[in-house]
Amino acid sequence: MSDNTYDNVSSFDNVADRMAAEALIVDVDGFEGPLDLLLMLSRTQKVDLRKISVLELAKQYLGFVEKAKALRIELAADYLVMAAWLAFLKSRLLLPPDPTEEGPSGEELAAHLAFQLERLQAMREAAAKLMARDRLGRDFFARGIPEDVTRIKRVTYTATLLDLMQGYARIRTKDEFRPFVMDRDAVFTLEQALERMRGLIGFAGTWTDISSYLPDGFTTDPARRRSATASTFAASLELVKEGKVEIRQSEEFAPIQVRRKD
Amino acid sequence: MVDDVDSEEESLFEAPPMGEQERMCEAILFATTEPVTVRELESRMPHGSDAAEALVHLRKRYEGRGVNLVKVGDAWAIRTASDLGFLMQRETVETRKLSRAAIETLAIIAYHQPVTRAEIEEIRGVSVSRGTVDQLLEMEWIRFGRRKMTPGRPVTFVVTQIFLDHFGLENARDLPGLKELRSAGLLENRPPPGSMPQLGEGDTDAEEQTSEGQNELFED
Amino acid sequence: MVDDVDSEEESLFEAPPMGEQERMCEAILFATTEPVTVRELESRMPHGSDAAEALVHLRKRYEGRGVNLVKVGDAWAIRTASDLGFLMQRETVETRKLSRAAIETLAIIAYHQPVTRAEIEEIRGVSVSRGTVDQLLEMEWIRFGRRKMTPGRPVTFVVTQIFLDHFGLENARDLPGLKELRSAGLLENRPPPGSMPQLGEGDTDAEEQTSEGQNELFED
């Protein structure tokens, strides 16, 4: 639209025309629809809206639309629909009523248009009055330091016996896994036992309980002790087989003893 | 539910003396920025309290003071006397500048509520942009009202308690000039005779979408 | 500076009557987001105002009311009367499940009591946060037991009667042992089969330890 007008500027003879044209463009943008435009035009009649001449208003509007067309201003469809209707209304108002014609008379239509304008005007004034009222945060104020209700969320915690047992089971199960990793350390292998026995057996001139050959750290923890006991016993048998030691047990479950074989 | 408890326990717990009830209302109302309903007051006060009566006393007590007890819809709030606004620093909340369209739409909703979008458009003679309504909804100055019992069951808009609070209105009947407008017949929804062009028709799509979306929401 | 202006312009502007000044202080104190000093009050009030005196009156006016005028440092504010603080609270009770850490800690205390924090940590393999223990103490599900006769004489924890009541136990010995837990399918994380032949036995050890631990406990 502005491009169009720019092209047209040269066709205006004087500044006044140009100004008028520009004002028109701005106004069309500024209008909130055809009713708003009609309301503005009605003000030029300088009468109470109730006494407005709708015929005159229709003429003004159509004149405006003509002018816009001349300026090659594209009016929105709304404006054109209103123009067509006002042209129709104008003819109705000018021609004597045709008794065969159905529908509302020109006067009725004109009255409704006047009503619409009056109502819009009234709403505008009401809006202005509303906005002019004392307003919260501008003219009157709410509490500046609200002591908001502290929502005391009293949280009560709970658990069931099942939770408790599952929790305990979880920990104990973890325990079972710990040996699984640690037990590699907890295992005293036959090789380790053999090596240890070979080193120590030289000092075993007398019968000695094989449990005294258990390495440090393998004597208290039951799992480790079992492992070390087993491997030390096996290592002893291995050494017996090699002819390096003698082994004996006085009775069932009695201590097993070894000594160096000279 | 609260009421039930009240009637049951009335005999067990004696309500505090009215002077105390007044103090309690005072404390609760002073503490909050938002209006508080009688129901809410009573739910926080000891059983058997009569907040409505306490408020009558309290309102009288604050008459002419620097702060007043005001009614906002069916709730109550303490607000500074509006003649002292000049003492306050305005930096607080600079309300977003409303467009002319938004202000007019708001006024139409306030004066014509409950009102449909089509009715607003009919009055303004122009389609109401979605953004305008959204802005007002967002500010919580308007909300959806009941559906109209007309074809299509369109949603309506009404103003909120926040709106009343903002404009210092006890209720929507106190809107300035409401009576005059009504007696002048300007709040009537007069259907256009015959062939008047339906203004703001362009946006019907948007409206239909809206109402459709809300259909599910409001069905109950 | 304010004082200077005051003294200069005093003659030009008459200070409002004290009643008005009181109203002004009231409104300002009500609406301002922070406590306000006398100096600040006077800078906002008309020239020649005596905020200090107005505050004296205002303070008296609010004596015994639901809100009081209180001095906060060298500034003033309106605050809820301290006896009405209960109105500012809305209690909502929410039941939540104990955290995993808390359940595990509780379980260890129940199965191993009396048990020191260090022992709990050893069993859980992670440190026990103070919050967890505090929470259980606060719930009164655990309490402090006798100090252990070991170096440092650490405190021990035991479960309480409230704990037993909650879990419907006559005493902590009624807690199912590991074998029962397993047969109830509560011990699922069986180690990969065949990896550790002694594991089965390891279990018993653990259980034996447990009962041992408990034995000590309940001896009295």
Tell me what the structure shows:
The complex is a heterotrimer, with one copy of chain A (262 residues) and two copies of chain B (220 residues). By secondary structure, chain A is mainly alpha-helical. Among the domains of chain A are: 24-97 and 104-130, no CATH class; 190-260, Structural maintenance of chromosome 1. Chain E (Arc Repressor Mutant, subunit A). Chain A contains nine helices and four strands. Chain A has a three-stranded antiparallel sheet with strand order 2-4-3, covered by helices on one side. In chain A, β3 and β4 form a beta hairpin. In chain A, 27% of the residues are buried. Residues 1-12 and 177-183 of chain A have low confidence and may be disordered. With 220 residues, chain B is mainly alpha-helical. Among the domains of chain B are: 18-83, Orthogonal Bundle (Arc Repressor Mutant, subunit A), CATH 1.10.10.10; 100-184, Winged helix-like DNA-binding domain superfamily/Winged helix DNA-binding domain (Arc Repressor Mutant, subunit A). Helices cover 44% and strands 10% of the residues of chain B. Chain B is built from ten helices and six strands, in the order ααβααββαβααββααα. In chain B, the strands form two sheets. A three-stranded antiparallel sheet of chain B has the order 1-3-2. In chain B, strands 4-6-5 form a three-stranded antiparallel sheet. In chain B, α2 crosses α4. In chain B, 36% of the residues are buried. At the A-C interface, β1, α7 and α9 of A face α2, β3, β4, α5 and α9 of C. Chains B, C: InterPro entries: ScpB_csome_segregation (IPR005234), WH-like_DNA-bd_sf (IPR036388), WH_DNA-bd_sf (IPR036390). Chains B, C: Keywords: Cell cycle, Cell division, Chromosome partition, Cytoplasm.
